[in-house]
Design brief:
With 211 residues, the protein is an alpha+beta fold. The protein contains one helix and twelve strands. The chain has a twelve-stranded mixed β-sheet, with helices on one face. The longest helix is centred in the first third of the chain and has 33 residues, at 2-34. It starts with a helix and ends with a strand.
């Protein structure tokens, strides 16, 4: 009985230490991100579901400043000015306008991408990998909400720069999405109209306004 109690205490202590280290690392990442006026990323996005024989890969880029962002992916520009989201498709010559409803689902949107982990997750340190000479420390995050469609996530953090390197999300339906940051730039001079929708540029487009 005494041995079991000692083992239990050691296990609890080790788990608490690992969680404290994970918490410290995530705080360092958060403070680093918040210290920048703006962030520009080039990334690779992969979606896989082996049971459905699905694998899709694409590249994209995003510029973020506070809650505002300009995201280019799959031929669509998603522009969020802090209040309204504009999805601009050049191929379809269509602009879809909607209010911000990102909080209504589990989607990790650009405005959340570098800070989503701050609320709603329990976390612990996971494996460390050496990727192209960079030490990447993974933190495993599990949604506190049992109704979440997300099973868990692995957040890869560059141990030296404290920048996010990649994000691996596993859904309860077996879908795995991976986002790898290829380029991470900060505090670039931005146009004052970068996050502003100019209707004059899209006079010939179909405007689809959603409630």
């Amino acid at each position: 009985m005494k041995k079991i109690l000692i083992l239990f205490v050691i296990t609890v202590s080790v788990n608490a230490l690992a969680q404290n280290k994970a918490n410290t690392l995530l705080n360092e990442v958060s403070e680093k991100v918040k210290s920048y006026d703006n962030i520009s990323l080039d990334f690779k996005y992969t979606l896989e579901n082996t049971s459905e024989n699905i694998k899709q890969e694409t590249k994209g880029d995003v510029v973020m400043q506070g809650d505002k962002y300009r995201l280019n992916i799959l031929g669509v520009t998603r522009l969020f000015d802090g209040q309204t989201l504009y999805a601009i498709s050049a191929e379809d010559e269509e602009v879809t306008i909607s209010s911000d409803n990102d909080d209504e689902n589990d989607a990790i949107t650009p405005s959340k991408m570098l800070s989503f982990y701050e609320d709603g997750y329990s976390y612990s340190l996971d494996i460390t990998q050496n990727i192209n000479g960079r030490k990447i420390q993974y933190v495993k995050l599990t949604p506190i909400d049992s109704n979440s469609e997300i099973k868990n996530l692995l957040l890869g953090i560059d141990a030296q720069t404290k920048h996010i390197y990649n994000l691996i999300q596993l859904g309860k339906n077996g879908t795995k999405t991976t986002l790898v940051v290829n380029s991470f730039k900060t505090n670039a001079p931005l146009s004052k109209t970068l996050f502003t929708f100019d209707a004059n540029k899209y006079k010939d487009y179909y405007i689809n306004k959603l409630d």
